[in-house]
Design goal:
about 270 residues, alpha+beta, 2,3-Dihydroxybiphenyl 1,2-Dioxygenase, domain 1, about 20% helix, VOC family protein, Glyas_Bleomycin-R_OHBP_Dase, Glyas_Fos-R_dOase_dom, VOC_core
Length: about 270
Amino acid sequence: MTDATGQFIWYELMTPDPDAAARFYGAVVGWTIAAHSDPAAPGGIDYRMIVRSDGGNAGGALRLGAEMIAGGARPGWMAYLYVDDVDAAVAAIAADGGTVLMEPHGLPVGRMAMVADPQGAPFYVMKPVPPEGKEAAGSDVFSVTEAQHVRWNELSTTDPDAAIAFYQKHFGWGQEGEMDMGEMGAYRFIQHGATGIGAVMPMTPETPAPAWHFYIGVDDIDRAVGAVAGAGGKLLHDPMEIPGGEFAVSGIDPQGAAFGLVGPRK
């Protein structure tokens, strides 16, 4: 595959009601979430593909069952980072102060594990099995510019310096440039190769725990913002202009998952 270590290769919505999530993200983003679990999902798990208008996959939706919720799972978005050797990556992360939340295991789609960085932000590491006939294909769920893709990955953390050093060491990311947020501190940009993939920022008092936050591309920020309220979601602030002239906003979907939107004003 063409994916390189540290690339964002998949995004997963954990939700107690994928049918309701399908209606919400369909109205806001334009995605289609399958009406039934994917046939390749392990037995007993309701896992559905999130499909873009161009026919490509934007990620997956995992139904949170009663047992998962009882075990502490909550609605939210998770990211998968590519690694070439899942077991070695997990061992190195654990040795460096990270936490193993789900041991490495194999599925028909690849080998994966869930971990948390030393400050507590969870994510998956994965080496996928490419579809037959598409062995050279890479993931396109992240795009810097395109609507219906995740366009920005933002880490809120208790120790930005330590977090940046951790991801640089284990995933080869770069860190160049920052934006002064006044009393909130620096908003520090991160890169995968030559591509700007997001930023790391100090955790705000209202943030419950260190976490990744993902901004989904939309065709028109005002249309999408109007759709959020109409579809039962909640906006956390008004759209803010960002460098380059586009606008970004954060919100909570009707099932309780935090999300971000970014796009132009038309």
